[in-house]
Design a protein that fits this description.
about 375 residues, alpha+beta, HSP40/DNAj peptide-binding domain, three-stranded mixed beta sheet, 15 strands
Length: about 375
């Protein structure tokens, strides 16, 4: 079956400009695209016909050959030049037309690559995290090679345009009536070939370096917080921007305090006599010691709250509190005299009954009732 006239296929005259051809092809592509006409061979054939017509007429050399010699002129031109070289017209078609239809866009011929982002785990003491300070860190990274200024070529030479992809960095592989875009295997997506690699970076355009950076830690940071240092990641390629450095904060355990957001807590050991008779003990805070009054008859585990002695968070206004848990310390390594006195004291306590130990007596009564119910 003889091929139809390309202008007739697109519905345009021979004097049609590029914009008119593109508009006509876009209309036909949207109408006959196989995704919109499944199980319709006739629509598929019309789609292929329109694609071929636009591919030929949007290429000035192919169009000139077609206008002068018809289909035979185009076939001869493709045989001499290699059809792959005329594929650039369809590359523009695919990027402009199908990109507009399906939400994409034309791919830039300049293949630049943003540098990779980096992460660094920064351990801080609780005091450092609460107060905030500037900390120097050493970060291994990839930086731009100063010898070749990042292009990978030995000074005095320049990278050449990749002949496989014509500098686009992408090639198209035909599979059926679809054209699939892939990274160019010759230049690996850069669009250029380095004939004489830089001796400093071996053609990579980047070199390994350990950078020392000052990280300003804001007051009140906590484990899990992250600080972003813009453009301090790995250098980009082909003039692309550098990535970012993300510093993840990890606060080391403290030997006295535990932190919960804005609040701090700590255990305060006191003697038996201090708990019974009452006392005043010195309690540590991050800003120095304060006096904590322990009332008489204080039980172990009781929590005292010191307002405003916690932490100022980076997220919430105000300062948290310090919670002090009293832990009554049992005396150890008693002398014979101390043991004798303690036994006499215990006898006197037992003689007083529940008046001196109400919690113990209520617990014993509860145990008795439990077993009585079990026996019943």
């Amino acid at each position: 079956m003889a091929k139809r006239d390309h202008y007739e296929v697109l519905g345009c005259g021979k004097d049609a400009q590029e914009a008119e051809l593109k508009k006509a092809y876009r209309r036909l592509a949207m109408k006959y695209h196989p995704d919109r006409n499944q199980d319709n061979p006739e629509a598929e054939n019309k789609f292929k016909e329109a694609k071929e017509a636009y591919e030929i007429l949007s290429n000035p050399k192919q169009r000139a050959a077609y206008d002068q010699f018809g289909h035979a002129g185009v076939e001869a031109s493709q045989a001499n030049a290699g059809f792959g070289t005329s594929g650039e017209a369809f590359s523009d078609v695919f990027g402009d037309v199908f990109g507009d239809i399906f939400g994409g866009g034309r791919r830039s011929r300049s293949q630049v690559f943003r540098g990779a982002d980096l992460r660094y785990s920064l351990e801080l003491s609780l005091e450092q995290a609460v107060a905030g300070e500037s900390v120097n860190i050493d970060v291994p990274t990839q930086v731009e090679c100063k010898t070749c200024k990042g292009n990978g070529a030995e000074p005095g030479t320049e990278p050449t345009t990749c002949t496989t992809c014509a500098g686009v960095g992408q090639v198209r592989v035909q599979q059926g009536f679809f054209s699939i875009q892939q990274t160019c295997p010759a230049c690996r997506g850069t669009g250029s070939i380095i004939q004489t690699p830089c001796r400093t970076c071996s053609g990579r355009g980047r070199v390994h370096k350990v950078k020392t950076l000052a990280v300003k830690v804001p007051a009140g940071v906590d484990s899990g917080d992250r600080i972003r240092l813009a453009h301090e990641g790995e250098a980009g390629r082909n003039g692309g921007p550098s990535g970012d450095l993300y510093v993840d904060i990890a606060v080391k355990p403290h030997r006295i305090f535990e932190r919960d957001g804005q609040n701090l807590s700590c255990d305060v050991p006191i003697g038996f006599a201090a708990a019974v008779l009452g006392s005043t003990v010195e309690v540590p805070t991050l800003n120095g010691q304060v006096a904590l009054k322990i009332p008489s008859e204080t039980q172990s585990g009781r929590v005292f709250r010191l307002r405003g002695k916690g932490v100022k968070s980076v997220r919430v206004n105000g300062v948290g509190d310090l919670f002090c848990r009293v832990q009554i310390e049992t005396p150890v390594k008693l002398t014979e005299e101390q043991t004798r006195l303690l036994r006499e004291f215990d006898v006197s306590i037992q003689a007083g009954g529940s008046r001196h130990s109400p919690r113990a007596r209520s617990w014993v009564d509860g145990v008795k009732k439990f077993f009585e119910r079990m026996g019943a």
